Amino acid sequence: MGDWMTVTDPGLSSESKNLSQYTSETKMSPSSLYSHQVLCSSIPLSKNVHSFFSAFCTEENIEQSISYLDQELTTFGFPSLYEESEGKEEKRELNIVAVLNCMNELLVLQRKNLLAQENVETQNLKLGSDMDHLQSCYAKLKEQLETSRREMIGLQERDRQLQCKNRNLHQLLKNEKDEVQKLQNIIASRATQYNHDMKRKEREYNKLKERLHQLVMNKKDKKIAMDILNYVGRADGKRGSWRTGKTEARNEDEMYKILLNDYEYRQKQILMENAELKKVLQQMKKEMISLLSPQKQKPRERADDSTGAGISDVEDDAGELNRESIWDLSCETVREQLTNSIRKQWRILKSHVEKLDNQVSKVHLEGFHDEDVISRQDHEQETEKLELEIQQCKEMIKTQQQLLQQQLATACDDDTTSLLRDCYLLEEKERLKEEWSLFKEQKKNFERERRSFTEAAIRLGLERKAFEEERASWLKQQFLNMTTFDHQNSENVKLFSAFSGSSDRDNLTVHSRPRQKKPHSVSNGSQVCTSKLTKSLPASPSTSDFCQTRSCVSEHSLSNVLNITPEETKPHQVGRECLNQTWSLASRPGSQEGGCSGCSLACTNSHVDKDDLP
Amino acid sequence: MNFSEVFKLSGLLSKFSPDGKYLASCVQYRLVVRDVNTLQILQLYTCLDQIQHIEWSADSLFILCAMYKRGLVQVWSLEQPDWHCKIDEGSAGLVASCWSPDGRHILNTTEFHLRITVWSLCTKSVSYIKYPKACQQGITFTRDGRYMALAERRDCRDYISIFVCSDWQLLRHFETDTQDLVGIEWAPNGCVLAVWDTCLEYKILLYSLDGRLLSTYSAYEWSLGVKSVTWSPSSQFLAIGSYDGKVRILNHVTWKMITEFGHPATVSNPKIVVYKEAEKSPKLGLGALPFPPPRAAARPFSTTETKYEIASLPVSLQTLKPVTDRANPRIGIGMLAFSPDNYFLATRNDNIPNAVWIWDVQKLRLFVVLEQLAPVRTFQWDPQQARLAICTGGSRVYLWSPVGCVSVQVPVEGDFHVLSLCWHLSGDSLALLSKDHFCLCFLETEEGAGTA
């Protein structure tokens, strides 16, 4: 909203502002309201001024308007528009400079005001957006609050329900407990009642029994009797004795004897068991001592005073116990000794085991330490190595970074970028590039050669045409000018000699043009080089033939050449010349053409001869 | 395993003499004494009425035959067949009769437990013991026969009297802290007396011979309590079977519980072997069925044979739903017995009536469960070794030993329902009792104890 507002003219914006102001007035802070009011009051003013100006000054009221303006301006603190005059009566002159200054100042002021207005507007916009944001935030938070409140209410409801349930359950539990209590009470009361009843019944029953007993037993029942043939002897063969106090005492004695026997038997058993257990304990102790004694030296050395003392104590104890026959000792002392010693032993064993554990851990640690000591140098070396490696790696990274930067800087160069893209293949790429350039060169050469060949062919065709035309013209001339036969003949001879010179040109050149040998000789001097070239370049058969022929020729002429110009065959020159030679070889079709044309000419000549023959 | 021929019997009254030489059996009003080895009739006594109870004297010289209906006891001597003795309790009536350990006195309990009359065979003297308690097990003698403990009830309180059997002198008389004492039992060493309260309350009291209370044990309250109690032969353990289906074992040093054996209906511990009796599928091949069906007599086995199978765990045993609104519900440990070598304890939970549980006492854990096809009626340990004989009221007898168990068909014509059994002293033979017959089963060889 703010963006397009800034573009629109102030009046419109102010109106819209007004609208927005009125719509959002209720929620605005007082400060922002204030700024808005200021803004709104300032802008319509300027508008009014504009509209006012149209009707403000006319032809008639210039003076009044000037004076009015002067008044106004002076009241606003501007210098007077009129020149300072001595007499007040005089009509004051309008000071143009002052007017202009005033205008300027007013304009400046206007601009400033506009700027301020703009600022205020933007601020207003900002504040408006802030306001919106805050409003949206507020709405969101309100929503959140609402939802959380709802949630809370829901939770409260659930809590209430659960509490209700809980209360119900509590109530149920209480009821159940009450029920249980009641039932228990009932059971107890029933039980007491039952017991009471039982007792009552039993008493009745007992009474009845008593009565029955009296009735049945007291009456001398004849029937109750034993009918026996004769009394038998007692099982033990003794005679029955009278029941007296003596027998009673004897019975008591016997009973106690039996009880005593039983207790003795049990005591014996327990003693035996005890002895067994003691034996086991003793054995255990001995074993423990024997187990502990070998290690005991070391721990003592390790300044474990308490355990060492314990061990010595135990040893003393053991000695004592061994000396005295412990089985004869009363139970308490033996037990105390035994338990004490066993406890000590056990403590020792425990500490020993703990120590062993510690030792084990220590051994582990020591092992590490030993290794460390042994390999300290190695370790240092290793660290050095590693540091070196790190440095190398850093360098690598640096170079890579550089390359990357270069690549970024010169991203246009395809070759370099491609090279930089994988710098690992840098060398290879370079090599390949070299090869590639070589290849390109070769290709260029080939192209050139081909072009030359085509050119030569074209030229040949043209020459042939020309020759044909010449021939035709010549034949015509022959036909037409039979009289000028001799002259023509001499020309013909000349022509023939010129053409035949190509067939054995070397001889001709050797004889007629000895200076031309120089390049030939040079080329022959660098025979190796050329051969190399021919080897590397797939030379056309014609050229190779040509070279061969030429080399053959050169062999003849070499001695002469060397004799003639020995100073001129310098290695540098040779190299250059060699290259030139190759170039010349490729680019000088003239000689070949000459040869070829000569051949063709010869052929044509033969044809001509044949033609002539008939 | 050999079986004797079948002899007539009435009232399941057949007993080996304590010295193991004779076998007494009753047929109506006749008492037959046979030689154990030859089974020939040595003596035949005729009583005045149908015999209801017989008992050998400890020295195997006399046999007591009680005819409760008549209030009569007749005693016969094995050495002097002409000797006779008849005790008439007259109008007082008779409900129980037993020998004293010396074999020269007979204790007769009159009707309504008015008194116990001690008749001597040596002298004319007759002793009376008043107020005996009418209960399950009110009289108990020590193994050595010196002392007798007797439960008494006076003025609605339980008392125990300890008598010296040699002269019937009262040695100790003390009140017990019980609601309604139900049983007493001497430890085999004769120095500790176990006393248990009525089933309405779980309470075990242990008294010394001199009447001191050694300990009291109660596992729980408000529920049916002790159902059966037995001492281990070494007097080391007291096994208490209760209505909650558990056996609790007390030790003899502290009289505290060492362990409790539950009897759950499902056995899932893989260490436990469950032997399940299963009917052998009758082999009915085409040719196996002879055309003229043989007479019933030719086929001694009227029912199909059975064998034991080792059941794959977990096994759920057949349970009986107890009727809770009746007295003496069929739940809880009704039977328990230690093997003579103390190594095993056999129990039966009355609501799993088909199963016998054998516990390893050394390791204090369940060892074997035998599940029968029919409810177990009774079981008894071989007096010489860890071998348990079980009968279920069918025609088979079952033997278990640590090596395995076997189901043996009694090869008898007609129906022979083994209702009870009793071992010979030597453990070589076993008397199998049915309603009308009995036979002996000889186990001299070990071949019978093979695994099923």
| Share of residues in strands of chain A | under 5%
Largest interface: A-B, 41 and 48 residues
Tell the overall outline of chain B. Answer: globular
**Helix/strand class of chain A:** mainly alpha
Q: CATH class of the domain at 132-262 in chain B, please?
A: Mainly Beta
Kindly report how far apart the N and C termini of chain A lie: 110 Å
User: How would you classify the helix and strand content of chain B by structural class?
Assistant: mainly beta
Largest sheet of chain A: none
Mean pLDDT of chain A: 68
Radius of gyration of chain B: 23 Å
The number of strands of chain B is 41
Distance between the termini of chain B: 15 Å
Task: Please name the defining characteristics of this protein.
heterodimer, A: 614 residues, mainly alpha, 18 helices, 84% helix, elongated, disordered N terminus, disordered C terminus, B: 452 residues, mainly beta, Methylamine Dehydrogenase, Chain H, N-terminal domain of TfIIb, six-stranded mixed sheet, five-stranded antiparallel sheet, WD repeat containing, antisense to TP73 (chain B), WD40/YVTN_repeat-like_dom_sf (chain B)
How do you describe this structure in short?
By secondary structure, chain A is mostly helical. Chain A has helices at residues 2-7, 10-24, 30-56, 62-76, 96-218, 245-301, 305-323, 331-374, 376-409, 414-421, 426-480, 485-503, 505-512, 517-525, 527-536, 541-564, 571-587, 589-612; one strand spanning 225-228.
Describe the overall structure.
The complex is a heterodimer of chains A (614) and B (452). Chain A is mostly helical. Helices cover 84% and strands 1% of the residues of chain A. Chain A has helices at residues 2-7, 10-24, 30-56, 62-76, 96-218, 245-301, 305-323, 331-374, 376-409, 414-421, 426-480, 485-503, 505-512, 517-525, 527-536, 541-564, 571-587, 589-612; one strand at 225-228. Mean pLDDT of chain A is 68; it is low at 1-47, 297-324 and 488-614. With 452 residues, chain B is mostly beta strands. The two termini of chain B are 15 Å apart. The radius of gyration of chain B is 23 Å and the shape is globular. In chain B, strands 29-28-34-33-32-31 form a 6-stranded mixed sheet, with no helix packed on it. The chains are: A mainly alpha (614), B mainly beta (452). At the A-B interface, helix 5, strand 1 and helix 6 of A face strand 10 and strand 13 of B.
